[in-house]
Amino acid sequence: MLVSAPFKRSSAKHYVDEHLEELARLADTAGAQVVGTLTQQLDRPHPGTYLGSGKVEELKLRIQELGATLVIFDDELTPAQGKNIEQVVRTRVMDRAELILDIFATRARSSEARMQVELAQLEYLLPRLTRMWTHLEKMRGGIGMRGPGETQLETDRRLIQHRIRILKERLADVERAREIQRQGRHTHFRVALVGYTNAGKSSVLRNLANDRDVFVEDRLFATLDPLTREVEVGDGYTVLLTDTVGFIRKLPHHLVASFRATLAEAREADLLLHVIDSSHPAWEEQRDVVDGVLNDLGLSERPLTYVMNKMDAVPEDEAAAVRERVANLMPNSLFVSALAQGGLDALKASLLSSLRTQRPVLEVQIPAANGRLIAEVHRDGEVLDQRVDDDVLVLKARLDERTIGRLRQAGARVKVVQGGTRPHASSRNGAVVPLP
């Protein structure tokens, strides 16, 4: 049984059906079968039961009528609200956050993803121990080791807090290892795919990289682990393209915090591709959700291009209106299809243009005796040619902005040979300023 209770003064009430449909897809992904729905518009949530008392009684009757064994709320419940509702309806109650955590737990494949999900689950579980005792017992397979004078609840809290510390330490180790890997990729132009879940990010990666091994499934949160592939974009140039975990409305904050290490790939990217399902009726809301999460993660200043995917699925009589709407909201967005023949050609051309724009070809003059600076250019840039002019080494290379700044501070002479513009830090979709 699905329950949605938007606020009366909120725009959410206009999206009740779409939100319930999304919740139903989440339930399906988790392996549940939806037998019914219940909605109520609220001025404010009831502090004890979220819904009004009359609606809770109606929910109880609907559960008995339909034989439902689980109630899923579209909004996050407090521990007290969940406990009180369960006491009235006599049925297991969970909220959207717990459902998403459950899906992540079943779909996590790598050890890193499993640790991230477990950490988020434990942090969600900690304030809910009293109500979720049986769930905890099942998850842990039984808890012993009760200390003298401690209650079982105190023991559980201590054990969970200890496990949380261990997981955070292990994830910190993983992040340090990832940082070393990213340093090895510093010479490459790095692009990260971000977007709402099921917007088609994995399909874009699969077809751009021409790699049939990239997993694609028409379900929410089909992939959780970041996946990087080298993609040819033309003229002999390649970029490193990374698929990141998808976002969703009301994503549990514990989960966002746990996946910060994974999303560090996006923080280190030269360019973000925000993939949007243009065929979805609520694509504007989904765009706003992703932009909000990117802002929370400190990524709002990264160069970003909006990519309107699944244009092949937009009805012909609606395509022109979609293009016009997007042009007004997000000028210079790309319209692509990961499935149509040649549907990603525009994206490839844009990636090549971005590479040339953000990493112009430069002529760097360094004293031949300065081995440190010469090594830095080779380590952090793409050296295309070099020659010796008297006692000066002249290198032709593609370099990023940070490396250019360090070289100039160290006294190297740097001038633009090809390119000469780059996206401003706060720009979106191609606004450029001269390279200083």
Topology:
Layout: E1 2-4, H1 16-30, E2 37-39, H2 53-66, E3 70-73, H3 79-89, E4 92-95, H4 96-107, H5 111-125, H6 133-140, H7 152-184, E5 189-195, H8 201-209, E6 227-234, E7 237-243, H9 253-258, H10 260-267, E8 271-277, H11 283-296, E9 304-309, H12 316-329, E10 334-335, H13 345-358, E11 361-367, H14 371-380, E12 382-389, E13 392-398, H15 401-409, E14 413-418, E15 421-423, E16 432-434
Parallel strand pairs: 1-2, 1-3, 3-4, 5-7, 5-8, 8-9, 9-10
Antiparallel strand pairs: 6-7, 11-13, 11-14, 12-13, 15-16
Helix pairs in contact: 1-4, 4-5, 5-7, 7-10
Find the count of extended strands (DSSP E, 2+ residues). 16
Cα-atom radius of gyration = 26 Å
Main-sheet strand order equals 6-7-5-8-9-10
User: For the record, what CATH class of the largest domain applies?
Assistant: Alpha Beta
CATH architecture of the largest domain: 3-Layer(aba) Sandwich
Give me the CATH superfamily of the largest domain.
Answer: P-loop containing nucleotide triphosphate hydrolases
The stretches of 5 or more residues where confidence is low (pLDDT under 50) are 133-149, 421-427, 430-436
Binned, the helix content reads 40-55%
Instruction: Please summarize the sheet with the most strands.
Output: 6 strands, mixed
Structural category: alpha/beta
Task: Give the termini separation.
Answer: 60 Å
Beta percentage is 15-25%
**Basic shape:** globular
